[in-house]
Each structure stands twice: as structure tokens, then as C-alpha cells.
Amino acid sequence: ELENLSDAPFSGDEENGGSEERKTEINGNWIPATSITEAKINAKAKRRLRKNSSRDSGRGDSVSENGETQKTGVVIPTSPKGKLLDRRSRSGKGRGLPKKGGAGGKGVWGTPGQVYDVEEVDIKDPNYDDDQENCVYETVVLPLDERAFEKTLTPIIQEYFEHGDTNEVSEMLKDLNLGEMKYSVPVLAVSLALEGKASHREMTSKLISDLCGTVVSKTDVEKSFDKLLKDLPELVLDSPRAPQV
């Protein structure tokens, strides 16, 4: 009954005047005015708490009787974007697991650990070619041009001056596609030897002798020395004793 009391001020009928306490009759009982005022204040506070609790119910906060807010946990609001990324079935069925164990998406190789068998060639396939099974694929190495030739062979010859193994140089040159630049191998070796020591010149003679017939032909060696004689004026600028050497 105390919660339903109105907020209207007291009428003059209950006032006895003087210092006597103001009283009101409720259900045949006389109640002091001070207790009625406290009841109204408590009723207002409870109504305010009920409004705040209903307003903050979606925020995850609860209001105590003292008017203090208590954190009971954060509720993540649902958004349309989150529903689009949801992998659960729209019909409400299923456990929300990825399709085909995670191997059903676009661009997926398959489940981890899955081993594929060798695919057999279908003879009835319109793209089938009889010569396809007998094809042999080889790695094509492009021939070296003049700039790439010097840049590639210079460190090989300089390393040869340190270890002196002609077989190693021969194997490295065989892996290269020298093309029409074969005759330039003795030219580069002699040019580097003219700038080095006497031991380097002896090693160059042995290198040209071992490469002749395997990497370069006798014709290539003849062509290389003809070029060295033509380029002798330029070699003298770097090695003044080039003609005698």
C-alpha cells in the first residue's frame, strides 16, 4: 500500500497545529507523517531503480538496491555483418562445423594428410595427344651474350688461379651455354693472366690445353689468339709487357 501513495502534499485536515506530529489515517490506523514521507521516498527510489534496470538490461549491468551499478558481463550485440560470416546453417540444422572437414572451400587443396593417386590419362579426352606420354622435358639455358659472358667467367677463372683444378673449370663451363662465345674463353683467360703473376700465366697455358677438345675446339683456340693479336694495342695500356709475354 505504501508504494501506491500519491506524491500530492498533505491536506489541511491532518494538521493539528503547534508542535504536534502530523498524522494520517490509512486503513483505520494513524501513521505519523514522517514515516509516510520516508515511504514515499522509498517508493520513488524503487520506481527509479526499476526504470534504470529495464533500460540497462541489454548492457549487461545490474543495479543494486543502493543504486550502484554492478558489472555482470558484457553482452556482444548481434550485427548483420556477423550473421553473414556465420558458418552455421541458415535452417538451424547442423553443428556449425566447416563443410567437408575444411576441404570444401574455394582454392582448397584438401584435408591435411590427404594423398592423391596418379591421374590416369583418358584416351577419349578431346585434348588427349598420343605423343604427350612420350614427351621429354629439358631445361633450356639461354646462350650468354658478351656482357653476361665476361661477368660470369671472370670469377671462375680467378678462382682457378687459387685452386688450379682444370676439371672443375671444365665442368662449370659445360653447364653454361657459351654458344658463339666459346672462342672468347682463351681470350679472357690470357687477358687476366697478363695482369697477374708468372704462375698465373703457366696455369693459363695448362687450362687452355685441357679445355681444347672438350669445351673449345682447335678452331676456337686459333680464333681466340687472332683476336688477342688484334687487341694487343689495347692490352698494352693495362700490361706494358704484353707483347713480350
TrEMBL record:
GO terms, biological process: negative regulation of DNA-templated transcription
A molecular function GO annotation: RNA binding
MI domain boundaries: 148-245
Pfam families xref list: MA3
Gly residues composition-biased segments: 99-110
Chief location category: cytoplasm
Record keywords, A-Z: Cytoplasm, Nucleus, Repeat, RNA-binding
Biased composition (Basic residues): 43-52
Region (Disordered): 1-111
Subcellular location: Cytoplasm; Nucleus
InterPro entries the UniProt entry points to: ARM-type_fold, Initiation_fac_eIF4g_MI, PDCD4
Entry GO terms, CC: cytosol; nucleus
Regions of compositional bias (Polar residues) in chain numbering: 63-72
UniProt record similarity statement: Belongs to the PDCD4 family.
Stated name of the protein: Programmed cell death protein 4
Species annotation: Anseranas semipalmata
